[in-house]
Amino acid sequence: MTDQSDAPKVSSLADLFAVAYQIEVDAVERYTMLAGQMESHNNPELAAVFRDLARAEGIHAGEIRRWAGDMDVAAHAQQVAKWKKNESPESADLDAVHYLMTRSEALQMALAGEERALAYFRHVLASVTDPAVKELAKRLVEEETEHVELCQRLIRKYQEPAGKPAPDDPDPAISQG
Amino acid sequence: MNAELKVAHKASDYKSDIAPIWCPGCGDYHVLLSLTRALAELGLPPEQIAVISGIGCSSRIPAYTNCYGFHGVHGRALPLATGLKVVRPDQTVIVTSGDGDGYSIGGNHFLHACRRNLDLTLIVMDNHIYGMTKGQPSPTTEPDFDTALTPGGSGLRPFNPLVIALASGANFVARAFSGNVSETASIIVDAIRHPGFSFVEVLSPCVTFRPDQKAWKNQVHPAPVAATDDPARAARHLMSDDGFNVGVLYRGDRQPYRPSFGGTTCDLAELEKEFEI
């Protein structure tokens, strides 16, 4: 199991709703940022992929809000959903992108985020004792498992053919020649 | 820093609607995230903050924030910030710079801003290269960094900005790594809260001209010693470290310089006339 010492501690149902919500909100923010980067660098195809990922994460955030009913998950998230050093698990790695990256690479990035989230919720499931919190953790593990499987299916669908040359870079860093 | 007004703010409250145009993968994206998260943590209203910069990739940050901002000329961010802080001590003034802008053309201002110890926070995004102008060596470039522009490397000893800051009188010195967004945000919060001149060097990789810096992620580590209030001790640690210790390294107790300023008595319309062509 991955190290979760940096992750927020969950001690109530409200905490878990808040953390789960924040994970999705952070993912929306990150994918939106990456879409903007790709638009700025004239890679509209990849910008669309990141916009789609942001939309999907936004739907997940909405679902969690709905499950939480009257709880103000957004406000509670500001208090409890904090990672000391790292970012929340579904935040795509900003330094793993390149303006010529492929759809397949973007989906690999999304998969890595979903797997980190799955590991986190599994950790919560294993560490909480309250039945209601455990039930929600189980539901979140199931959700994230579905997301992981979806990413894996999409990666297979958009797999680059073996031996395909890297895209031509029209603006290489010439000083490093 | 100024009186904090604890209103619930989100990091997005401090972002402008201008899309950054840094290279995808640039560490400066992380620094922008860290800065906006730090401002949200502090809960300061955007109109109580001024972000001042010079020239370079890192100096684009004022445009990407929703605070007051000034994108100045090369190397002159600190004089601009000094002037602003003197006349508007109520503002929280943050300077964003890079290793070229801050240590080379702005190097002299760096020394004297540390010496003056006004209540400012300087964040330098150090990528050991001039990125915006296509990869010339900066004051922190390694002597053997070989490029088409500097075959065999520049052969010049790199500048040690943290030690220089200590020797010049900075009241808070820290090093952060851009990829550790939450940790960097926390260091920036500390820096802004600490009275006097606070200096945060952020190792911020340039993915285009220094792809080798992707390795920094695995090289940075927490400073093995806690922050000290003894500048000589902090300098000794910094002189012998590997350049990848991150965390708050020095917290001084010098009183910030607060010049008395009675405000202007001149007629602005009269002043404007003097500059008419």
Give a written overview of the molecule.
The complex is a heterodimer of chains A (177) and B (277). With 177 residues, chain A is mostly helical. Chain A has one domain (13-160): Ferritin. Helices cover 64% and strands 0% of the residues of chain A. Chain A has helices at 13-40, 44-68, 73-80, 103-127, 131-157. In chain A, helix 1 (13-40) crosses helix 3 (73-80). The longest helix of chain A has 28 residues, at 13-40. The mean pLDDT of chain A is 89. Chain B is an alpha/beta fold and 277 residues long. Chain B has one domain (22-274): Rossmann fold (3-Layer(aba) Sandwich), CATH 3.40.50. Chain B is built from 10 helices and 8 strands. Chain B has an 8-stranded mixed β-sheet, sandwiched between helices. Mean pLDDT of chain B is 93; it is low at 1-5. Classes of the chains: A mainly alpha (177), B alpha/beta (277). The interface between A and B is medium-sized, with 29 and 33 residues.
Proportion in helices of chain A: 55-70%
Distance between the termini of chain A: 43 Å
Biggest sheet: strand arrangement of chain B: 2-1-3-4-6-5-8-7
Any guess at the CATH architecture of chain B? Answer: 3-Layer(aba) Sandwich
What's the pLDDT, averaged over the residues of chain A?
A: 89
Order of helices and strands of chain B: HEHEHEHHEHEHEHEHEH
Structural domain count of chain B? 1
Rg on CA atoms of chain A, Å:
18 Å
